[in-house]
Amino acid sequence: MNSFLQIVKINILQTFHFNRNNNSKFKSERRKKSLKTLGIIAILGYVMWYIYYLTSSLLPGFIAINKPLYVIAFLFVICTFYVFFFNIFRIKSILFDFKDYDLLMSLPIKRSGVIASKIVSLYIVNLLFTIIIMLPGYIAYVTKLNMPNDLIFFLLLLTIPVIPMLISCIVGIIIAWLTSLFINKNIGSYIVNLFIIFLVLFISFKTSTLDDNAMVNQSINMVNGFSRYYPFTTIFVDLLENISFINLVIYFLLPVILMGIFIGIINVGYTPLRNRLLKQTIKNDYKIEEVKVNSPLKRLYLKEIKRYFSSSVYVINTAFPCIMILIFIIVMLVSNHNIFSNMSNVVDVKDLISENIFIILCLVCSLSSTTHASISLEGKSLWIVKSIPVKIRTIFLSKVLVNLTLLIPFVLIGGTFFGLYFNLSVTDMILIYLLPLLYSVFISLAGLLFNLMFPKFDYDNEIRVIKQSLPVFLTIMVGFVIVILPFTFIVNKVLITLFMVIINTLLLTVLHIYGERKFIRL
Q1: Which of 136, 284, 310, 378 sits CB 3.0–4.6 Å from 51 for a disulfide?
Q2: Per-residue b or e along 437-470, where b marks 16 or more CB atoms closer than 10 Å to that residue's CB
Q3: pLDDT digit string (tens) for 440-452?
Q4: Residue 329: how many CA atoms within 13 Å on its side-chain side?
Q5: Quick check: is 440 in a domain?
Q6: Do 203 and 159 belong to one domain?
Q7: Which phi and psi angles does 458 have, rounded to 5°?
């Protein structure tokens, strides 16, 4: 039992990097990590405050229709969705592809104990995020009303992440297995992941109605629709209102039993399943052909493109905003442009989108950056790139071009469609291409600069660099601010264009002076 708890403890420390702050040899490194920790705490504090504010705003509407506990059920649904999507693409690396596999399997611990330790560690992480979401809602609720059963609420809190976590583990394993059937795993991963995205969008359209006049009604419809697919939502609300022994037994025992069954099944077929998911297929079709000679920029660009598309996580996370807009365009074309007729009658959605189409396209470009992780992903092979006899600006340009390769087709397709659909003037038609392109250049340069300032080479999984590193956060925040502030205070789109030209020029200068020196010191 002590060994099991020790493994769980180590897994938790590795997840949050608690064991690294004090082991750093350099004071500047420890200070940087401490500042990063404070930043994360500040962000979590803001999220909790926002949830408290949102709950306080929605609660009077729920009280008016005599369904106050539905505001807690609404947060329950959000938690369930979060836990499901948080784990679905991580389970393969957590359960099968962890780096200390050989070490753990050589210890005098049963394999089932190792698997259980991974699942329990994952549960603890999800429980922490569940508390971050549910606790502010609870505080907002009890400041205005009395919770029928406070003790039951906190007991129910412990089991909220279990079922969605297990479902996401099963779905994640199925996705990994389906991907392994393809000779080219990356193509298989793209197909499966995009299918999941389309499936989630389809379910969201089915479980929600957009013709309600208030967010409260939409929240209730969301809870009721979700309850049809996940009955634990109804049981959760019933237990908060009235304690039922049968519901209590089902709610507490079923998750524990299902977790035990899941661990047992995985333990029985662990080795063949792991071998299947991690197998590598090699094609022996090598042919001697004419050696092609490319320019340094083209060669580096092709290397970066190959590296980008070699990681499905990298592609999905950086291209997701563009994919969503393209899906929206496809839906509008399929529905003969009548999609707005099913939306809310409170505002004219078509006019609302028409007025903000420049902001939408620029925001999508500003949230899609591949460069914020391009330096870190070089990893231990960074010295190879640095030793190539080419100018540093050529290396930078090859990384920027990858992001522009992603965004330029999106700008052309989106700009053409929305420009024709909303009958924009000639000036606006020019600007609907020019402004998003300027923002595409900006976010490419900004992401590269932040990655040079805060590189991360000590990662054990590329997901930490692509999704959870400081450059990613800074790039997203700056990308969001650089769109919202000019469109709020400058307003005139021609002036915003000139403003972005100036900003891009300054950013290029900073990269040329500071960025190249920083790259040499890495």
Answers
A1: 136
A2: bbbbbbbbbbbbbbbbebbbeebebbbbbbbebb
A3: 999 999 999 999 9
A4: 21
A5: yes
A6: yes
A7: -100, 35
